[in-house]
Amino acid sequence: MLNSVDRLFAAVLLLSAPFLGATAAQADLRLCNMTTSRVGVAIGYRMKEAWRSEGWWNVKPNGCETLVNGNLSSRYYYIYAQDYDRGGEWSGTSVLCTQDRQFTIDGVEDCLARGFDRMKFFEVDTGEQKNWTVQLTDPSKSVPK
């Protein structure tokens, strides 16, 4: 099994939504699961003065889900994903609060003291685009250049 850093670099492909045929009227942050496994996804982002984390989206193999509807208000978003079928995760270095069941959590401080788990999310730089798509791929598939 790949560790989270190896899996992240081998398996995350970030694409701007226009490359996927989105029209100008569509403005969202989407995640597409291009793996053969079911994937659970959580997201984190900054809202005015506070951080918020939300989850879980269950994304089918070769399926997509909208994580943020409408124009993106932040340049940076943070994602954590776990492979339900084969194990492993897509993670990074940014710690946010999560829990096992569906959640919306405000704040990133004292996760454990507040009864939450701590997960390490990877950063997505949207380049201030109004829409963006993140693709998770199997580590065995090469990333196109």
How would you describe this structure to a colleague?
With 145 residues, this protein is mostly beta strands. The chain has one domain. The chain contains one helix and eleven strands. The protein has one helix spanning 4-11, and strands at residues 12-15, 28-34, 39-47, 50-59, 63-69, 76-83, 89-90, 94-98, 103-106, 117-125, 132-137. The strands form two sheets. Strands 3, 4, 6, 7, 8, 9 and 10 form a seven-stranded antiparallel sheet that branches. The chain is globular, with a radius of gyration of 15 Å.
What descriptive keywords fit this protein?
mainly beta; 4-stranded mixed sheet; about 5% helix
Strand portion: over 45%
**Number of separate strands:** 11
Q: Which oligomerization state do the chains in this entry correspond to? A: single chain
Which residues form runs of ≥5 with pLDDT under 50?
Answer: 1-11, 13-25
Write the layout of secondary structure elements.
Layout: H1 4-11, E1 12-15, E2 28-34, E3 39-47, E4 50-59, E5 63-69, E6 76-83, E7 89-90, E8 94-98, E9 103-106, E10 117-125, E11 132-137
Parallel strand pairs: 2-11
Antiparallel strand pairs: 1-11, 2-5, 3-4, 3-6, 4-9, 6-7, 6-10, 8-10
